[in-house]
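Weekly structure sync - notes
Attendees: PM, LS, DV (DV joined late)
Agenda: review two folding runs queued last week.

Item 1: First target. Sequence and structure tokens pasted below for the record.
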Amino acid sequence: MCLRNILFLAVLSLVSLFSLSATAGETISIVGSTTVLPIAAQAAKVYRRQHPDVLLTVAGGGSGVGVAGVRAGTASLGMASRELTAEEAQALAGRVQVIPVARDAVAVVVSRAVFLAGVRHLSLAQIAAIYRGKIRNWNALGGQDARILVLDKEASRGTRHVFAEAVLGDARARAPGASIIVGSNNEEQAAVANSERAIGMLSKAWLNDRVRAVAIDLDDGRSVLPTLAHVADGSYPIQRKLNMLLPTRAPAAARDFVNYLLSPQGQQIVRETGYLPIR
């Protein structure tokens, strides 16, 4: 065989091997909660280094998007920062596993100026009155003379679901006192930080110097901050599990990724991103 033919066959073999390796991998799409997103995104980076044949894409949109994605079969995994509703659980029965990977506190947050002016703890009843439009000025709560800027979240958001259930008594309750409705944690964090009179709801992992958490006054006289210790001992009243939604027919790599999140290495990532490990 001439040298030219040998080189041609060698190149053809290399192209075939490349095509095989390119198509042999899997693409795992993960969508949903922006609260769970930092965990999944960081874990995906590490997992990808260990499994270079698996491509993971991670996108937000809210818990409702995560549920809809696995329900429609357009997502390999869903992220949800709340439990399934009764209707969702019925529709997904036998089709999706809800697997907790972390625990979190939903913090009641205020602008830095509000906190420094003296509003550092509130009861659930006072927070409910703000969201129902019955308390409209911070001076009624020991703060400055300024109208309260009440931030609410989109109804599909898991954080809103958990907050409304704990504070307003119904996950679907309206909040007539709210004047701005935001979507992602990034949006709400920025809205609170850029105001001097705002109140809102955020995962405790999104607190910073300009977005302060107020303590919640309990019936026993204690005021409890949304710390991981108070999530662990159950004393903080607005808390939740952070879940991965795993379809029963998900690719093997999707199931393996969830198992990775539950491994000691995955749970360390949970801790590093500001949440409480489930294990």
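Item 2: Second target, run right after the first with the same settings.
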Amino acid sequence: MGRIALSALTDDLYRQSHSREQTLSMFLEERDPSPEGSKLDAFGRLMQEAGIVTRNIPERNIFSSKVEAFYRTNENKVLFPEFVARTLVHAMTAFPLYNYLVAAKTAIDSNVHKGSYLDFDDADNKKAVEMRRVTEAADLPTARLKLGETAITIYKYGRAIEASYEALRRMSIDLFVRHINRIGTMAADNKVAEILYVIKNGDGNNNAAPVINTSTLDGTATTAITRKAWVKFLLSFYPDKCNTVVANEDGLIQILEVLYPKFEVAGKMDELLANGLTVKTTLPQGLIDNTTLLYSPRIEKINNKEVVIGLDRGNTIEEIFEVGSTISEADTFIKNQTKMLTVSENSGFMKIFSDTSKILSIQ
């Protein structure tokens, strides 16, 4: 498809992209694919053509444009809502906790969504998902992929910015981006709270994370995580793996004490190794190593007991976001020159698989 020139930009492009469940960036890139190795995508090239500089590069004596650069022409105005949306989304996805907890991000064109789930426990086919030997001409076992019974809840994440029209347009874009980034970070932290809730309680489709007591894994682990309980908890994810763990301060300290033995134990091992003892163990399945530890003060006790959350981050959480939810208010701001700019995104979270997250309760 032919490239969309700056002179051809109109508000109608947002409606066209929305109807295709695409962001404006996706819509433009589809029509003007970036050459391999290009540092700019289609939207970035239009920003460059408009002469809008978005960041300071003081070592080159280059400084960002003012926000008023988006008001020079009607075409430039069309770029502003998508610029705000891209800045906000980048800030949210760069937030470390969010980045490690969300496996996939899917666009929808409404504020209602029912996710698709593999049915592992169909009453008529208990072993539906097993790949097992079948006799000649016999039917293969069937795994059923069906819609969930409960719709995913969509929330609005972001902030409203109250500022005079004149003050905002005379602000440098570099400084404006810092404010949007701050809003994005706060919104991402709010998203994390919802993600942890969904992992723990499910998304409304009977898929809450099971709770495993440390004492069940190791009879001596009634007040603290032991090495035995920790290893057995990680192994309980097989054939998946627990590659991400989220804990509050107390839980994180306990895990670190398990992973890093007390000085006298480590010292004795160093002594043995120094005397010629060679020990090497390889665990190629990756079931009990390479685990990312994340801290969150939002991890709450269950029945007054400390807990940690474990998950296979590549198969647990999918974010559903409403296309266009980040741009409508910015678009209105440009046209009406109002004093309130709402920077937000409508999104919700669902579980991809119900058995890739578990909770370890210290009791």
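Discussion on item 2: The chain has twelve helices and eleven strands.
Action: LS to circulate a short write-up before next sync.
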